[in-house]
Structure formats: C-alpha cells, structure tokens
Amino acid sequence: MFKVSYKNAYPVGPRSCYDESKRAGEAFIKAYELQHKMRTKIVRIFNTSGPRIRYGPAFGRVVPNFIYQALHDEDLTIFGDGSQTRSFIYVIDEIEGILKIVHTDEANGEVINLGSNKEYTILELARIIKELANSNSKIVFKPLPIDDPLYRCPVITKAKKILNWEPTTTLEEGLEKTIAWFKEHE
Ligand code: UDP
To answer: What is the CATH topology of the domain spanning 41-185?
Structure first.
C-alpha cells in the first residue's frame, strides 16, 4: 500500500509543466530503484537563497528581486496583497542537509523535505529586506500570477528524525549575508 503525498498539483494549469516535471522526476527515480535495484534517495528542496543566487528577469525569485529593488531604492513589487506565505532556507543549511542525505543509509529509498519550516508572508519579507538594506523603497502591489500558491511550508519531521538535521540560520542572518554579497558583486 503506497502512501500518497504531494496531492495538490493541478495537471493542466499554466505552471503544470514545472509542477508535473518534478513529480515525473520522482516517479522516474522510483522506477530506476525498482527496475534496476538502484539505491535512491529523493530530496525535495524548498525556497532557498543566499550569496550567488541567480538574479535577473529570466529568474524573478522574490528574495533577489526585493534585495535588488531595495538596494536601488526602486519599488518593492509585491504580487497580490502579500498575504501568501513562503519559508526561506539559507543555502548553507540546505547543502548541509543534502550532504547528510547522501551520507545516511537510513535515507535510502526515502523522500525527504529539506527547507525551512518558519513561515513568513511576502509582505513581512518585503519589510524585513527593506529594513536590513536601509532602503527608501516604497512597497507596491501588482497582480498575483495565476496559480501562485497561497501557502507553502514544508513538514521537516522526517529530516529531523533520520538526519538529525534542521536549519540553524535565521531569515535575517541569511538575508544579511545575501545583501552583503549583492552589494559587493552586483
Ligand atoms: N513575488 C513577489 N514579488 C516578486 C517576485 C515574487 O511578490 O518580485 C511573490 C510570488 O508571487 C510568490 C512568492 O513571492 O508568491 C515567491 O515567489 P518565488 O518566485 O520566489 O518562488 P515560488 O513562487 O516558486 O515559491
């Protein structure tokens, strides 16, 4: 009997090729495990940021967007009313989790969420970045993209139990390091 997880994907929406490709990827990995007796582990990563994050119109992730806007005193563009939530993990915490999965036998065959479980609204994120960057930017509201998830926060109990892992960097600490990197490299 298989347990079903990740059941809220919409198969024919505008973001579906992205959502469904992730699900297909997991199915392929399981097929390899069953068919070829391969040792597999599946990591589900969640919103991650830190120094060297890709930035530009082709990427458009919220953390680098807001940092760039804040450092240039441009308007911080919130999509929707900013009440949608995300949790942001610092890249070093994420990589440490991935390495633990690689080196932990109990992770064999498992699907493991790696992310932060501290949830923020996008409006809170905008205010925090504005303050940390000492910015005079205004916060403005733009239309919410279709199918933009209203909530996202991973359950990380399995990672805590199997890997004895959890993120240790606070959002503010991670953002400070990311802002410093932007100032130096942008
Ligand atoms: N977002 C925003 N302003 C931006 C970029 C993104 O308000 O300039 C919102 C976006 O609509 C979403 C959230 O921030 O609700 C996270 O977006 P991102 O693209 O970083 O990640 P994902 O949607 O994949 O979680």
So the answer is: Rossmann fold (3.40.50)
pLDDT for 1: 46
> What's residue 58's pLDDT?
76
- Band (pLDDT 50/70/90 cuts) for residue 14 is confident
Q: 107: CA distance to ligand 1 center in Å?
A: 31
Centre of ligand 1 to C-alpha 105, Å, is 35
Q: Is 18 part of the annotated catalytic residue set?
A: yes
pTM exceeding the 0.85 threshold for the entire prediction:
yes
How far are the Cα atoms of 45, 47, 114, 144, 170 from residue 122, in angstroms, in the given order?
19, 12, 20, 12, 16
Domain ranges of the chain: 11-40, 41-185
Compute the Cα dihedral for 60, 62, 66, 67 and give only its sign: negative
Is 147's C-beta closer than 6 angstroms to any atom of ligand 1?
no
Average pLDDT, the chain: 94
Say how many Å lie between the CA of residue 186 and the centre of ligand 1: 21
Question: What's the average model confidence in pLDDT over 47-71?
Answer: 93
84 CB within 6 A, ligand 1: yes
